[in-house]
């Protein structure tokens, strides 16, 4: 059975990955804070992400989901995410883990019209997206210079049946269930692109098995 590390283990996507992959993989779940939902067959580690080599040793792959979220102070987002991602890549290399699935973001495309392609120029509009691009470029250097396999997944906003009560999608579903008009509480040109969490799980798991480098 392959052994994998999942960072950002308290996040929505990580929790679902752990729940659905723990029967197929031996999982080490890493988070900065105490992990809420625990399974007896999963190893849980609290870490500040500064000393990861010992945690990564003996594993076959890392699914790197941890990040400073875009609603935090913008001044800190760019540098903290780049530092975090570099430490994960460095630690994987030093511990002999060759396969990394790195979660980037669809926001690297900014307000470019859909459909998007990984071959088109990126157009970031905030520090979170700019940091993700910088980390993607760093990942490319590891692939070329250190023969690592790193896949960058440019994920849209994840949704699942665990959406919090006041989320836009939950409000839509409840309004639709009651036969009401769908009410949007904001005005202007704000758009959202969503990805169902099971689809993102399939992407991540597929690249763990494939052990190759792609953008998606």
From TrEMBL:
User: What is the protein's species of origin?
Assistant: Vibrio ostreae
The family assignment reads: Belongs to the NAD(P)-dependent epimerase/dehydratase family.
Domain named NAD-dependent epimerase/dehydratase is located at 4-184
**Which PANTHER family does this UniProt record tie to the protein?**
DTDP-D-GLUCOSE 4,6-DEHYDRATASE-RELATED
Note one Pfam family from the annotation. Epimerase
**What is the protein's given name?**
NAD(P)-dependent oxidoreductase
- The superkingdom listed in its UniProt entry is Bacteria
Q: In which pathway does it act?
A: Bacterial outer membrane biogenesis; LPS O-antigen biosynthesis
